[in-house]
Specification:
By secondary structure, this protein is mainly alpha-helical. The protein has 2 domains: 39-88; 104-181, no CATH class. It is 78% helix and 8% strand. The protein is built from 4 helices and 2 strands, in the order αααββα. The chain has helices at residues 2-31, 43-87, 90-132, 158-180; strands at 136-142, 148-154. It has a two-stranded antiparallel ribbon.
Length: 181
């Protein structure tokens, strides 16, 4: 028992000296630091210290930004590589056509219907206007040789012109709705 007690005391003394020497080293290193109030420093030295702290803070953010940029670049590179490989397959081409149709298919369909409708409708209204709204000479008497001896001039009234103009404007509005809405 005495032997166990002596061993414990020796062990405590040995470890106690090591702990106290470590604490002494820490306090000695802490003593190397001097703390000063900002108001006690000259303005130029204070400005240099603040700039140094700001550079260190910005430097850490720059490093983080570079890491994020590299990660985004690598991620996008992987996505574009896989998308390009997928686009070369038959299924990939079909998917690209379906995406293109989803994005602009309705617009193309509207133009494919609206432009021919506009061309045909404009031609039809022009023909109808020339037949019904422009004064023309109609042959009334013919000679035996087929020569016209007398003409009758038809003069349209103002209502026919107004009616044609109104219907043409309505047609243009409907065609514009077909093409653009």
């Amino acid at each position: 028992m005495k032997r166990l007690f002596v061993t414990a005391i020796v062990f405590a003394l040995v470890t106690g000296f090591n702990v106290t020497s470590a604490v002494a080293d820490d306090t000695q290193q802490a003593d190397d630091r001097i703390v000063v109030k900002k108001s006690d420093l000259p303005p130029d030295l204070l400005q240099k210290i603040e700039q140094k702290q700001q550079v260190e803070k910005v430097g850490s953010w720059v490093g983080l930004g570079r890491e994020v940029g590299t990660a985004v670049n690598e991620g996008l590179k992987a996505v574009t590589d896989h998308a390009a490989n997928f686009g070369k397959t038959g299924v990939g081409m079909f998917v690209m056509v379906m995406i293109a149709w989803k994005v602009m298919g309705v617009d193309l369909l509207q133009l494919a219907i609206g432009l021919p409708l506009l061309a045909i409708g404009t031609g039809l209204f022009t023909w109808s206007y020339s037949r019904n709204c422009i004064p023309r000479k109609i042959p009334v008497e013919l000679t035996s040789e087929g020569k016209v001896t007398r003409y009758e001039v038809t003069k349209p009234n103002g209502d026919e012109k107004i009616t044609h103009a109104v219907f043409f404007l309505v047609f243009i509005v409907i065609d514009a709705l077909v093409m653009f809405v």
